[in-house]
Specification:
about 290 residues; alpha+beta; Glucose Permease (Domain IIA); 3 domains; ten-stranded antiparallel β-sheet; 12 strands; elongated; transmembrane helix
């Protein structure tokens, strides 16, 4: 009871009414008179302070004034951070695709199945109905492999065969029309034909196929490789710009790159074109009229 008696006078004091009067100093006429209490003053002052804090917070949070806060990035820095985040994310995805591609190629070469290939269903290279197939190497397969490797042991080049077996009826589209400056020569390990043309002239695919490589290399600049049917591979080097990405399907005659002078092993704008069949280099001039 004593504590209530002590608190009651304080509450009563807060509720006590006071009059604020403003008078004319010369005439002592009353200009303004306001009845106030301490509780009213504290309430109004508290509400005004809260409103002022909220307004200042909103003003800083939703206007360019926030950029003047020490340590807060400006608009240009935030844009750079966002762009770098997008580029890093894209780079990670491209690296994952590259790793999956090379893992698939490694499994094919080694004769393994695809259970250890980490890839999403959208870019899977295996038909789901063949996913559970297992590949085993029998004794007859091993003997056949040894016999075949022994027969091909000393077959270092196909230069003695003007037309590779099975390609005589294949119609190749010319990748570019121009003047040949360097011919195919397996002895000097020049496994392609150099053709000079106009700068930024379009380069076309020689056959229908799938792009398996489309990147920059130090020696040969921008390079694009296309896998065709019948175990054919076409290679286009020293381009100024690549128009297709790995994994894209192209048609014969479709533009895939622009003629350029990229890479360290080049002396001027030209296309270094290579044609491979079953892992062996072919002389492009035996099949294509440039």
């Amino acid at each position: 009871m004593s504590s209530l008696n002590e608190k009651k006078p304080l509450i009563e004091k807060l509720k006590n009414k006071y009059r604020l009067t403003i008078s004319n100093e010369a005439t002592f006429d009353e200009v303004l008179s306001i009845r106030l209490s301490r509780l009213n003053v504290f309430t109004v002052t508290g509400l005004f302070s809260v409103l002022l804090i909220v307004l200042v917070t909103l003003l800083i949070a939703f206007t360019p004034l926030r950029e003047y806060i020490p340590g807060y990035p400006d608009g240009e820095m935030r844009r750079n951070i966002e762009n770098n985040d997008i580029l890093v994310d894209s780079l990670i995805l491209e690296l994952e695709k590259r790793d999956r591609f090379f893992q698939g190629v490694r499994n094919i070469v080694e004769g393994n199945d695809f259970d250890n290939v980490v890839q999403s269903a959208s870019d899977s290279i295996v038909d789901p109905k063949y996913k559970n197939l297992s590949f085993t190497r029998t004794e007859s397969d091993s003997l056949f492999r040894l016999d075949h490797e022994e027969d091909e042991k000393y077959n270092l080049t196909l230069e003695d065969a003007p037309k590779s077996r099975g390609l005589s009826n294949t119609h190749f589209f010319s990748p570019i029309k121009g003047m040949i400056t360097n011919h195919f020569d397996s002895k000097s390990q020049h496994y392609g034909t150099d053709i000079v043309g106009g700068v930024n002239e379009r380069i076309s695919s020689v056959l229908d196929g799938t792009v398996i490589f489309s990147e920059w290399t130090l020696n040969t600049g921008y390079v694009i490789q296309i896998q065709h049917s019948n175990n054919l591979l076409s290679v286009y080097k020293h381009n100024s710009e690549l128009l297709k990405k790995a994994g894209e399907h192209v048609k014969a005659g479709e533009a895939i790159a622009l003629l350029g002078n990229s890479g360290e092993l080049t002396s001027g704008p030209h296309l270094h074109f290579e044609l491979w069949h079953n892992g062996q280099p072919l002389n492009p001039e035996d099949y294509i009229k440039f």
